[in-house]
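Recall the central idea of this unit: under ordinary conditions, the amino acid sequence of a chain determines the structure it adopts. In this exercise we apply that idea directly, starting from the sequence alone.
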Amino acid sequence: MERVAVLGTGIMGAMARNLVRAGNDVTVWNRTEQKAHPLEDEEAHVPSTPADAARDARVVFTMLADAPAVEETVIATGGLDAMPVGSLWFRSSTVGVAATERLAELAAERDVMFVVVEQPLCVQPRGNFDRAFELGHGEDMSAVYYASATGSGARS
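Accordingly, the structure predicted from this sequence is:
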C-alpha cells in the first residue's frame, strides 16, 4: 500500500477514489474543502492543509486550476516542504513554461522528483504503483519529466 496525496479533488475526485479502491492510503485536500469531504466515505483522509496532506506521502498529485493555485498550494502553504525527500510530485495543471521551470527547481532543491502530466492519468483500481511510477530521470533532478497518455520523455 502506498501513501498518496491528491491536492485538488474538484473534477479529479474520481482519480482519488480509484486510488483508494486500489488499496492505497490516500489523503485528499481541496481549496474548496467541501469538495474533498465526499471522499471520506471512500476512506480517504481529509486534512485541513496541503502540508498535512503531503506529509509522509510517497506520491503527491496536484491537479489545480492554474499557476497561482499551484504556487499557493505547494509553496505558500508549505505543501512542498512537507513532501518527503525522494517522493514523486505529479503536477497536472496548465501553468506555463516559466512556472513549470520554477516549480521544478524548487522540487529539485527538496530532492522531490517533479513530473509534469500533460494529460491526467487514469489510475484504475487494479493499478500497480511499483510499476506505474518507475520513472527514469537523469542525474540532474531539476530536469522536468513529462508523462502523457501517448508517451513520455525528459525535457529540460
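The mean pLDDT is 79.
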